[in-house]
Amino acid sequence: MARDFEILREERLHGGFFTLLRMHLRHTLHGGGWSEVLTRELYHRSRCVAVVPYDPMADRVVLIEQFRVGPLKSGENPWLLEIVAGAVEPGEHPDEVAHRETMEEAGSRIRELIPVSEFFTTPGGCSESIALYCGIVDSAGLGGIHGLAEEHEDILVSVVDFAEAMVLLGEGRIRSAIPIIGLQWLALNRERIRTRYGAA
């Protein structure tokens, strides 16, 4: 089956923390032919990176907590438990961003970077994609408040046992999709990682 699309017109509605576009497009249909002209708004942002910082020797996970505007309109708590994440700037490789953001947000160096997956977060209306990694770290001494003042970051770092991270996940206290995906991956691969580092 031939799959194709046409962008007929694109308007820039806003440029700020995100770029908001209005797109007029059409695409081929599964049953043949073309769709009607569709109008869709799209939040556009650069590719991003997320890291699950994990210490296999201590069997601990590094979590961060920060204010997020997204939950406000739903009346939810805007301080979310998350993992390290950041945007890929022009000319950067995602691996570089993983190392940079882990230092900036958690105060930790990555000893080894394990690629996990790359996925779209909200493809129905946002272009954001995430390159997800597991970062092997030494969790000793980590904690406190981190982040860049020029980016108005106020990030609380906590080191928790893997079992506690799973309790937080199971109780629904981690509400953001990216750390949920990252921690579920870790749950599936933890024993392999610990065996590799001689911790199991």
Overall geometry: globular
The ordered string of helix (H) and strand (E) elements is EEEEEEEHEEEEHH
Helix share, percent: 10-25%
Largest sheet: 8 strands, mixed
Terminal CA distance reads: 49 Å
- As for the CATH topology of the largest domain, it is Nucleoside Triphosphate Pyrophosphohydrolase
Alpha plus pi helix count:
3
CATH homology group of the largest domain: Nucleoside Triphosphate Pyrophosphohydrolase
List how many beta strands DSSP finds: 11
Indicate the low-confidence ranges by residue numbers: none
> What structural category arises from helix and sheet content?
alpha+beta
Nearest-angstrom radius of gyration?
Answer: 19 Å
Overall tally of structural domains: 2
Average pLDDT: 95
Strand content bin = 35-45%
Second-tier CATH architecture of the largest domain:
Alpha-Beta Complex
CATH class of the largest domain: Alpha Beta
Task: Report on this structure.
The protein is an alpha+beta fold and 200 residues long. It has two domains: 5-44, no CATH class; 48-196, Alpha-Beta Complex (Nucleoside Triphosphate Pyrophosphohydrolase). 21% of the residues lie in helices and 39% in strands. The chain contains three helices and eleven strands, in the order βββββββαββββαα. Strands 4, 5, 6, 7, 8, 9, 10 and 11 form an eight-stranded mixed β-sheet that branches. The protein has a three-stranded antiparallel β-sheet with strand order 1-2-3, with no helix packed on it. Strand 4 and strand 5 (60-67) form a beta hairpin. It is globular and about 55 Å long.
